[in-house]
Structures
1.
Amino acid sequence: MKVEEKQFDLEYINKYASQMTIGNGFFGIRGSQEEDYRNQVRGMFAAGVYNRPLGAESAELVNLPDVIRWEIKIDGEHFSLETMKVLAYERALDLEMGELKRYALIETAQGKKVEVITCRVADQNNLHQAALKVVIKPLTEDCQVDVKTGIDGQQTNFGTQQLVEKELRVFGDDLISASYQTTESKIDIGIAAKFNKAGVFQAKNRRITASFSEKIRKNTSFTLEKIIVLSTSLQQTDPFKKSIAQAQKSVSYTEILEQSMSYWTDFWHQHRITIQGDSSFDQLAMDFAAYHLQIMTPRNDPSVSVGAKGLTGEGYKGHVFWDTEIFILPFFLYQFPEVAKNLLLYRYDRLEGARQKARDYHYQGALFPWESAHTGQEETPKFAALNIKTGTRQEVASAAAEHHISADLAYAVQEYVQATEDQSFLETKGKTLIHETAAFWLSRAVKVDDHLEIHRVIGPDEYTEYIDNNAYTNYLAHYNVALAVKYQAGDPLFLKECQNFLDKLYLPVPNKEQLIPQDDTYLSKPVIDLTTYKERPGSQSILLDYARSEVNELQVSKQADLVMLLYLLPEYFSQPIVSKNLHYYENKTIHDSSLSKAIHAIEACRIQEMEWAYHLFQEACLIDLGPDPHSSDDGIHAASLGALWLAVIFGFSGITVTNGTLSISPRLPSAWEKISFPFIWKNHRLLFVLTKKQIVIKKETKETLPIFVNGDQYQLEKELKIGRASCRER
Ligand code: BGC
C-alpha cells in the first residue's frame, strides 16, 4: 500500500506533491520536495484557516508558512535532484504508516557517493504536530554536510500574501518559533520547530532558520530531526505560546512515527475495503481514496468542513461545495457517523449566511452558498479568469443559479438520520435545516398555469446555465419539501404550503423515447460529436472550440446531471428507464468534472453492464492516479475520491438504503474475485464479504437486524451466509 514515485521528474512535481500529502484532518502538508525546484508549489494548510486578502472577492484557504524545506549542501555543493548525478531514487507515501519517505543516492562533483534520506509524518494523536527527518550518509569518503531549515513566512497563495508576521523567537539552541496573523480574518497562527541538535539561528525577510554543520565520516550518518507544532486561534487561545510549549516537550521522530503506524494500522483494520482481483491497482486506488478522505476531514471539529481539494492544494481556494455532503459525507456516515454529523453541523452553524443569501435574492428560507468558507457567506468568485484576447470576463453563474445545493444538504440530513436514527440531531438541528431549505423551494418555484415550475437554474451540469425545470433540481427540491412534511418541520400553514408544492411541482417524466429531459430545452438542442473531447476528460477542451454560451446551446453535459438524479433517488426509476437514460446521457457527457465517472459507474452496475461499469470505475481511479502530469497539480479531487468509495459500496456491492431499510444485491465485475468491507448501519457494525458465489454478512451486536439480500428479506443475527442458489440464515 504505497503511492510511489520511481523517478524524479519535474513535470510531475506538483501532481506528486498533491498525492503525497500527509495530514490528519487538522492540517495537510503537501508532498513537495524538500529543496526548491522550478514551478514547485509548496503548501501547508489548516482546516478552516481562510482569509480574504485585500481587494479579493472571496476567502482563500491560507497557504501557511513553509516548514519542510531543507537546504542541503554536501562539501559546499547544493543538493539537488536536478543538477546532481542521481544514482538511485525512490519516493513513496506509505499508507500503512502515514509516512512519506524519499531515498536518493547521489554522486557529488568530486565523485563522492552519498545517501540522502528525507522523511516526514503527521502526528495522529496530537493533531498539531508533524515530524521531519533527514539522514545523510557518505558511502565512499568523509564529507562536510550543511543543512539549513526553518519556518518560511514568505509562502503565499500564488503570490498573495495572507499573513502578517507578528513575532519570531528562539529558545535555547534547538527551538525556533514564529507567530502570524491572517490579514483580514485575524486568525492567529503559531508555529514552532524543535530540533534534536543545536543549530545556529537567523531571522531575515520573514524567514527564521536554523543551520547545522558537521563533518561526517564515511559510513556514518548525519541525522537531523525537526518536530513541527502548528496552532491556530480557531482552536486555542494564544497559539504562539501553545506551539512553543508543545514543541518543548521534545518528542522524537520515531515516537511520532510509531503512533502514526498504530493509528493507520487500526484505521485499515477497521475501515478498509479489500478487493481481491486481477489488478492490484484497484486496491491501491481504494486505499488512496480512503487515506485521503481520512486526512482531508476534520475528525472532531464541527466548525470546519472539507474543501474541494481537501488540505492538499490551493485549488478552488479551499472552498466547500456540494461535493462534501453528496460525495464525501457518505464514507463518514457509514464509517465514522460522528464525523458525518459534524459536517452537517458546519452547515447548520452557517444557516444565517444561507438565510441572508436567500433574502438577498428575495427568497424565503435558506439558500446555501454554492462555495463556502469560514463565514458561511457566498464565496463563489463572480467572474472566471479574464479572457486575455477580448479583455472580458465570463460571469460565474453558480452563485446566482446553482441552487440544488440547498436540497443536497437536506438530502444529506435525511441520509444521516436514516443511517443513525439520531433523533436528537433531527429534533434540534435536522428539522431546522429541512424546514429552512424547504421554505426556500416554496419561494423559488413559480406558478405556470395550474402547476409549479423552477426556472433559471443550473443543475449539476455546469455547461447548461439558466435553464428551466432541471430534472435533478426539481426532483431534489420535491424530495426536500417532502422531508419537511415527513418530519412535520413547520407549522400547519407551512406544511399545507409544502403539500401544495408537492402536489403541483412539475417533475419531468420519461417522454415517448423513455428519456427524462435534463431540462426543458436540452433534448431539442443540436447534438455534436464529442469523441475528441471525451478523450481528454477533465481538460474542458471543448471550451477552446466553443464559447460557453455556445456550449449552452448544445446537448453537451459537463458531468452527471440526470444520471446524478438516477443515483440519488434509485427507488424512483425503473431499470429500463435507468438503462435508456444512462446510455443516452453518458454519450452527451464529457466528464469534464471529476464528479462524474464514478457515478456513471454506479448506474452502469445497476443495469448489470458490469464491464462498462468497471471501465468507468477504473477511469475514475485514474483521475488522481493516472498518467496525466498535471491533473492534480493544485490538489487531489476530494469528491472524486469519495465517489470511488460510493462506486464500490453502492455500485458493485449493490447496497441501497431507502426508507430506513438496508438492501444488498452485489454484482462484481469479472476482474474481481472478492470484496469485503465494514459498514455501520444504525449503530451496528456490519462486515460484508462478497464473492461471485456467496454473500456473507457478519455482525457483532446482539439484536436482530432486518436486511434485504437480492430482494428477499432476512433477519441478520450474528452471521448470514447466502449462496447463489440457497439462501439460508445460519
Ligand atoms: C463541478 C462542480 C463541483 C466543483 C468542485 C466543478 O467543476 O462542476 O459540480 O462542485 O467543480 O469540485
2.
Amino acid sequence: MVNVAIMGHGVVGSGVAEILINHRDRMSKAVKTEVNVKYILDLRDFDGLSYSDKFIKDFEIILNDNDVKVVAEVMGGVNPAYEFVKQCLENGKSVVTSNKELVAAKGAELIKIANENNVNFLFEASVGGGIPVLRPMVQCLCANEITEVAGILNGTTNFILNKMIVDNMDFNDALKLAQEKGYAEKDPTADIEGHDACRKICILAALAFGKHVYPEQVKTEGITNITLKDVESADTFGYVIKLIARTKKLQNGKIIASVRPTLVSRDCILSNVNGVFNAVMVNGDMTGEVVFYGKGAGKEATASAVVADILDCVKHLEARKYLDWCEGENDYVDQGFDEKQKLYVSVKSDDYNDIEKQIQNLFPQNENSFIKNQYGGEIVFITEPDFEKNTTAKLKQLKNCSYKTLQVIGG
Ligand code: HSE
C-alpha cells in the first residue's frame, strides 16, 4: 500500500479525493498496489463526507509522516504552496501539482530540489486541465526539435468568448457562468487578464525549449477589451476571436512568447475549439503539427490529470521521470521581435466621414477592401500583413479618435 496526502480541498482537490476514494479498486488495479488517501489538508471543515475523518489542518503532520510517499498540492497560489512543496520534496516525498502559478514561478528550482532528493515533481494538470500534453510532448515527441507551441490555454476565457459569439451573452454574465461551473480561478482576473494562459505558456516553453520562462517576460493581454461588436465584426470578416498563447524558437537561440486576443481564421483548427475546451498545437521538425485537445478546466478533468500523476509517482517511487529544464535568463525572451502580420483595427470617432478619410490616406493600398463594417462612429478593418510597429506608427497619426488592435491569424 502507498499512502498519499492531498493539500487543498477546493474544486480540484475534492475531485482528486473523490476519484482516489470512490474508485479505489480501479486505482489499485492501475498500479498493482493499494493507493490510500491518508490525509487531506484544508483549514476549512468538511463534515458529513464519507471521508471527513481524513481532514487535518496542520501541514507538519504530512511533512513528518514518513509513510506518506506522494503529496498532491492542489491549493493554488505561490504561497504557502511553494514552502510546502519544497519541504515535502526535501523530506523525500514525490509531489504532484495542478498549480501553474507555482510551476511558472518556481518550476526550475523545484525540479532541481526533486532531482537532488531523488523524488519526482510532476505537474501535468498545470496545463490544459484534463488533456495529456506535457508528458506526450516530452516523451512521445522527444525525437523532434520543437519549433513552436501555440494554443488556447484558458478554459474560462474560451467559454466566455464562445458564449458571447454563440449566445450573444454579455461578458459579465458569461464570466459568472464560468465561475459557477468551476472553471475560473479564485480570482478570475487571472483568467480574463491572460495571466493564467501566460503561466501555462511559460511551462510549455520551458519544457519545449529547456529553459525557464518567467511570466513577466511574456507579453500578456487579456480579453477585457473585447466587445460584442468586435465579436460580430470578426465574424463578418470570417474570423473568430480567441485568446491565443504562443511561443516560438528564434534562430538566435532566443524565443518569443505572448498571450493575446486574436482573430483566428475559420480555416484554422483553433477556431473550432469552443467552450471550456483547450487545444495545444506543437510543431516538431519531424512530425510537423501535432494537436492536443480536450477539456482545459473543471473539477473532474483537472483531477483526472492530478490522479494520473499521483499514480505515476506511486509506480515510480524508485525511478525518476524526466520533465525538467534549467533556470531562465533575463534576455532569453526577445521583447522586440516582430513578425509581419495582419492586424484587426477598430477606430472610434465622433466624425465618421473624417476618420474614414484619414484611414484611407494612411492605408491607401487597402482603399477598396479594408473597411468592412461601420457601427455608429466606429470603423473596423483588417490591415495587410506588415510589422506591427509599422502599422502602429501609422495608427498613431490618426487624429480625434481612439483605436484598438488585435492580432490576426490565417485568412
Ligand atoms: N481557470 C483555469 C482555466 C483553470 O479556465 O483554464 C484551469 O487551469
